[in-house]
């Protein structure tokens, strides 16, 4: 295998054509997968099991696939099978702790292997010999935890050139930010960042899990209001607002900020209308709200004094924030998974992140009542939870930055733009949930 991995892995092309579209991180959903080609493949470990690092082009997009090869496939790896390589089984190696465990060691060594460079961040001494644990969560990328120390994200769709997640983490870490996890190493190859290791925050809980636990508490209590139940989230929402505002302030200080003029505003509006055009074609149910959404977008033209822009998170929601014992931490600064790389690096209004988080409070509240038998009282109480936490988030934000609610027209337009994005995201990935952003559009438009 080590001598000619490209040749060997190329024979998996047909299997990859079936396997790739079934993966959560595969982006070309909604399009037929016609063209699959193994671009590069290098051996990272020989023997049985063997590990091959491959870059696969599918319909013109590049994907990173780590392929494990074993003569016998144990039961726990059977769900991750890709196909056969001669007599051996090929499978997604990111689920194999045995094969993953060597990756941080390669970084610690500063290894150069088949065109891949593994580097610790300057000044970081990485621990080696740690056990690897795939996190098993279905995400845009694939992450593996090493001991209780590091988490390595393997970018499934590597972007040629600079990597926004890495660059913004480095900038914030250099600025002394307490609201991000320390970057500890990167893997680069083929002109792209392929992997990014950070300190693993083992004491953390995801914002989505903590917020939805609070909603569940509320719904379990027959008559109480959100402020009266033990699991009230408003204090956390407020602290989260302050943390997000602090990240915005640090990004503006280190990377600069600007104000967009009328031409810049037109181009941003055109983007929002374009996205709406695209989503309307894919999800006809959106059509009844089209006029109202377009009017809310165009109301942004009435905003006086220009719109401040800077680098922001770009895809902020409750799944992108972790509550640690020291406070809230923001993760995953890649930007919206569906946006083109050149769009993701643009500076934007920080209110975009605020809008993303406000949408997320709506999701957290409503996903627990959506889908079941309609229950008006539960819906009203969930909506009360969302309103309370949306307000608390803005109040917390205002303790560090300006109060987002003072920019009502912008916030409304950005929330609607985000909800339009979510309609497509849900339609493609979780059709049962498409009602959540659609209901929000109906309410707001
Ligand atoms: N530094 C960290 N410490 C602890 N858990 C983390 C850390 N970074 C990410 N995670 C966990 O890994 C998951 C995936 O990370 P994320 O960067 O959002 O990847 P993706 O791009 O695949 O969405 C998160 O939802 C979170 O649960
Ligand atoms: O975390 P990702 O970068 O993969 O973001 C994508 O997936 C998110 C879902 O995991 C999606 O978020 C939407 O659902 C969340 C609940 O699961 C909710 O909190 C968010 O507000 C909502 O947007 C996100 O949009 C998508 O880009």
UniProtKB/TrEMBL annotation:
Record-linked Pfam families: Mak_N_cap
Enzyme class: transferase
GO function terms (MF aspect): ATP binding; kinase activity
Gene3D superfamilies in the record: 3.90.1200.10
Chemical reaction(s) catalysed: D-maltose + ATP = alpha-maltose 1-phosphate + ADP + H(+)
SUPFAM superfamilies in alphabetical order: Protein kinase-like (PK-like)
GO biological process, one term: glycogen biosynthetic process
Family recorded in the similarity comment: Belongs to the aminoglycoside phosphotransferase family.
Protein name: Maltokinase
